[in-house]
């Protein structure tokens, strides 16, 4: 299969259209790193998300909230083509990254996933050593620099280095849940992605581990663009700059987090964030 | 009695629980006692005949001089070749079906057929082996023809066991690998296979311990019952332990029946060693994870 590298210089498409329903914020083209255009995902004949158009601004944290089954995880997984792995999943519309449609037949999902990393709901370290967990992505992607150096740097960036530097050769499965999740973040950072997708990264963790992850997200947004799916509205309010509310597969409202939580424009958003359904 | 009241009948419910428990316990005892009776009987009959000479000698018409050297060597040849053929074929087919095959009618047809093949009587494989390997391929009544036949016989079981082991690998592990930009092969090679390997190995060795006791298909392809030399190449004629045992039990002299019992002990020991190897390897690889 021909492999078209995603060109660095390609022009980034503009963000959503503010005029259409007022729920989508328009960003400068230069600020938007990822843009969806009328994106829909179907599992067989069932539509999981439909007609979603939004832009993800660079070096910001965007949170997707909504009740279970609203499609927020599906939307997140459409950003790095993880839905490809689900038999029968189909994608409509476009996801533009650096001006290239991620679903163009020439685009190799392997390259997409290196540039758009992912952290999953349940910590899923490989049953290997801590070092090998972080080094794996470097090795398979043919990293040219020092693997040791990059592993150390990634573990530092994930605020885990001090806790594991003396036991890099020990199994990752011996770490606590919170440490495992930070290891998974380090592993994702190692391959130098531009965007980090986080699918409820703290939902399996205790409050202390959760607050460490949240602090980390705050640190990481200096260098990365972060999209986080969360069930926890307080978490969305704490960590994100922009929040999108999804309901029944549709984007109901998208805006600055402070504004969306204090002054929602849509009635359904208000009902959800005040806990009247969901 | 009002509609809301309960009639707990706790005594009757607990009694049913106890009855079921005892049914299960007796099932275990039935199997266990049968095995013990068999072992005691065989040991009592054969132990006196077990000796180094018995392992070293070739078969003979004189019971005191008869041994199972050619049968042991034949069985070892047979297992080595059967394993060498069925392991790569079975694991390869399992990886294809589990990791690559699209979920369509053809795949489902293949799966159903493999499950059915696992239930086909072994004598049918003997007929197939006789036709294809002995005659069409011209391998003759050789170790290789026998091993290929037995490999076909256990292939469905190897495939099914390997698929189960592959399916038991958590999807979260695959997602983690793909999420870092790994290709499908890199994911299989570095994450799926290492985790599935103990299960695949156990399944293969247990299938081989089925093959080690097979008699009918080998008789069908013309394995000899009296071999006074050891096979030195895959194309040599051969005998195996079960055939030797079958041969001796068919003789009228009581001494040969005792020799058969002694050979059964040897076969059981080899079988137990194989199963023990399966368990040891499994534990070893599990610990390394």
Task: Provide a brief overview of the structure.
The complex is a heterodimer of chains A (278) and B (289). Chain A has 278 residues and is of the alpha/beta class. Helices cover 33% and strands 24% of the residues of chain A.
Describe the structure.
The complex is a heterodimer of chains A (278) and B (289). Chain A has 278 residues and is of the alpha/beta class. Helices cover 33% and strands 24% of the residues of chain A. Mean pLDDT of chain A is 87; it is low at 1-24. Chain B is mostly helical and 289 residues long. Chain B contains eleven helices and no strands. Chain B has helices spanning 10-46, 52-56, 69-100, 105-117, 122-136, 143-167, 171-179, 184-211, 216-220, 241-249, 254-288. In chain B, helix 3 (69-100) crosses helix 10, helix 5 packs across helix 6 (143-167) and helix 8 runs antiparallel to helix 11 (254-288). The radius of gyration of chain B is 24 Å and the shape is globular. At the A-B interface, helix 3, helix 4 and helix 7 of A face helix 7 and helix 8 of B.
Number of strands of chain B: 0
| Count of alpha/pi helices of chain A | 11
Count of DSSP strands of chain A: 10
Termini separation of chain A: 44 Å
Number of discrete helical segments of chain B? 11
> Which sequence of SSEs, written as H and E, runs from N to C of chain B?
HHHHHHHHHHH
Layout of strands and helices, then pairs:
The complex is a heterodimer of chains A (278) and B (289).
Chain A: H1 18-21, E1 32-43, E2 46-57, E3 61-65, H2 72-78, E4 89-97, E5 100-101, H3 109-115, E6 116-119, H4 130-140, H5 147-157, H6 161-164, H7 177-190, E7 195-199, H8 207-220, E8 225-229, H9 233-239, E9 242-247, E10 250-256, H10 257-262, H11 267-273
Helix pairs in contact in A: 4-5, 4-7, 5-7, 7-8
Chain B: H1 10-46, H2 52-56, H3 69-100, H4 105-117, H5 122-136, H6 143-167, H7 171-179, H8 184-211, H9 216-220, H10 241-249, H11 254-288
Helix pairs in contact in B: 1-11, 3-6, 3-8, 3-10, 4-6, 5-6, 6-8, 7-8, 8-11, 10-11
């Amino acid at each position: 299969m021909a492999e078209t590298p995603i060109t660095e210089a390609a022009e980034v498409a503009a963000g959503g259209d503010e005029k259409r329903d007022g729920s989508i914020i328009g960003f400068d083209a230069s600020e938007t790193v990822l843009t969806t255009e009328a994106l829909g995902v179907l599992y067989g004949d069932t539509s999981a998300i439909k007609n979603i158009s939004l832009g993800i601004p660079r070096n910001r944290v965007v949170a997707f909230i909504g009740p279970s089954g609203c499609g927020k995880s599906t939307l997140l997984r459409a950003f790095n083509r993880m839905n490809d792995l689900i038999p029968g999943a189909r994608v409509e519309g476009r996801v533009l990254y650096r001006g290239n449609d991620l679903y163009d037949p020439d685009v190799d999902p392997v390259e997409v996933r290196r540039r758009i990393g992912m952290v999953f709901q349940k910590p899923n370290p490989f049953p290997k050593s801590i070092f090998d967990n972080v080094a794996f992505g470097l090795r398979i992607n043919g990293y040219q620099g020092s693997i040791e150096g990059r592993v150390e740097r990634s573990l530092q960036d994930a605020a885990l280095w001090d806790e594991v530097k003396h036991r890099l050769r020990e199994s990752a499965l011996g770490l606590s849940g919170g440490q495992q999740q930070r290891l998974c973040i380090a592993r994702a950072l190692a391959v130098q992605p531009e965007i980090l997708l986080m699918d409820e990264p703290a939902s399996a963790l205790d409050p202390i581990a959760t607050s460490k992850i949240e602090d980390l997200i705050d640190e990481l947004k200096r260098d990365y663009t972060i999209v986080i799916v969360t069930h926890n509205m307080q978490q969305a309010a704490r960590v994100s700059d922009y929040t999108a509310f999804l309901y029944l597969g549709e984007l109901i409202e998208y805006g600055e987090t402070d504004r969306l939580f204090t002054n929602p424009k849509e009635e359904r958003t208000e009902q959800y964030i005040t806990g009247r359904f969901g | 009695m009002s509609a809301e009241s309960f009639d707990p009948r706790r005594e009757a419910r607990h009694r049913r629980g106890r009855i079921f428990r005892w049914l299960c316990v007796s099932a275990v005892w039935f199997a266990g006692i049968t095995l013990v009776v068999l072992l005691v009987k065989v040991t009592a009959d054969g132990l006196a005949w077990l000796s180094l000479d018995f392992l070293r000698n070739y078969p003979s018409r004189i019971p005191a001089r008869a041994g199972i050297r050619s049968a042991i060597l034949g069985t070892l040849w047979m297992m080595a070749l059967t394993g060498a053929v069925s392991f790569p074929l079975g694991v390869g087919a399992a990886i294809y079906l589990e990791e690559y095959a699209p979920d369509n009618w053809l795949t489902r047809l293949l799966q159903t057929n493999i499950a059915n093949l696992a239930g086909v009587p072994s004598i049918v494989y003997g007929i197939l082996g006789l036709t294809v390997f002995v005659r069409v391929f011209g391998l003759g009544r050789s170790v290789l023809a026998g091993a290929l036949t037995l490999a076909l016989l256990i292939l469905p079981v190897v495939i099914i066991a390997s698929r189960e082991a592959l399916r038991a690998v958590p999807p979260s592990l695959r997602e983690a690998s793909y999420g870092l930009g790994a290709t499908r092969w890199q994911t299989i090679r570095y994450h799926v296979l290492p985790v599935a390997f103990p299960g695949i190995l156990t399944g293969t060795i247990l299938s081989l311990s089925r093959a080690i006791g097979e008699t009918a298909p080998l008789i069908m392809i013309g394995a000899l019952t009296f071999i006074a030399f050891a096979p030195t190449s895959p194309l040599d004629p051969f005998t195996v332990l079960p055939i030797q045992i079958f041969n001796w039990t068919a003789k009228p002299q009581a001494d040969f029946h005792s020799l058969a019992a002694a050979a059964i002990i040897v076969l059981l020991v080899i079988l137990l060693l194989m199963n023990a190897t399966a368990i040891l390897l499994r534990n070893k690889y599990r610990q390394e994870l």
